[in-house]
Design goal:
Elements lengths: L14 H7 L7 E5 L5 E5 L8 H5 L9 H9 L3
Antiparallel strand pairs: 1-2
């Protein structure tokens, strides 16, 4: 994923990146230099967005045991 730099030194942040970071018009972003020479774009003052798996952790509300769940998944009678 890339963007072209304009004559004014501006770039467009791709929509997927803006959506992932929660960047909206008026948001402040920071550029951080890493030890290996890369530049990382972060939304200022924001905690990293949890992965889709972390977002689901702890929301299951089943009363089934692990063995009962495995039996359901396997189709055991």
């Amino acid at each position: 994923m890339g963007s072209r730099v304009t004559s004014k030194g501006q770039v467009t942040i791709p929509k997927r990146v803006r959506d992932h970071l929660g960047i909206e018009p008026g948001s402040v972003v920071e550029f951080e230099l890493t030890a290996d020479g890369r530049i990382v774009l972060v939304k200022a003052g924001a905690a990293p967005k949890p992965s889709r798996f972390e977002q689901l952790r702890g929301i299951a509300t089943t009363k089934l045991t692990t063995d009962e769940i495995m039996a359901l998944l396997r189709g055991d009678d």
